[in-house]
Amino acid sequence: MRAIRHGLSAAALLAAALAVSACASSSPTPAAADWGQPRFAAWQDSDPAYRFYPGDSIDVTVHSAPELSRVAEIGPDGRVSLPLVGNVMVADKTDYEIANTLADAYARDVLVSPIIEVRRSALGPQNIIVGGEVNAPGLVELTGPVGALEAILMAGGFRNTAARGDVVVLRRQPGGGLMMRTVNLHDALRARQGADNTQIRRHDIIFVPRSTVAEVSVFVEQYVAGILPLDQAFSYAIADTITNN
Fold this sequence. Notes:
Number of domains: 2
Helix content: 10-25%
CATH topology of the largest domain: Outer membrane lipoprotein wza fold like
CATH class of the largest domain: Alpha Beta
CATH superfamily of the largest domain: Outer membrane lipoprotein wza domain like
Oligomer: single chain
């Protein structure tokens, strides 16, 4: 929940998108360094501030003009429609950044020193993509906290040819870089204590290779290269391609 008074610095513009092949890092994960491009940014387990996407709804409170307050849904184009300012781009921003953006919009022609507060109202589908050696690859909708193993089971479970010890999780950084980590799910399958069952977040991509983690390079080139932080439209496009190939 954030309240913004106009006059604070505006939120920075989103960084220009780079193809995955350009997302090199000076500190790639050890696995990535062994088999060349694409290279991946170092994995980070920190929980960043929530960023809003199409399908989410926000509660906008205009304290300096309460009649303008309302709940607005973020449309497929990433914009919300608000009185007197029209459509404003808010996708891939935090509540603080959205409040700042809206304060700037109202301050241009409508209000003097507007005070805007933005809160989360409702969330749209929390989708991920599961590909590779699973029985039902494609888009998976999350209904709550899910680990990598649960996500694979929701995609039909492992095929007999799956490399269960080298499951790959791909995740975008806020700046657009692609992170990768491998998860050994052998222990998780046996319910062993201390098993690595990475928690999955919205728009993550899980890839189960056939024999070796190096196959993720081909997967990234075929389906992921050049894709921006995954919004709903891109999620469906990639999932459809994976399912039908």
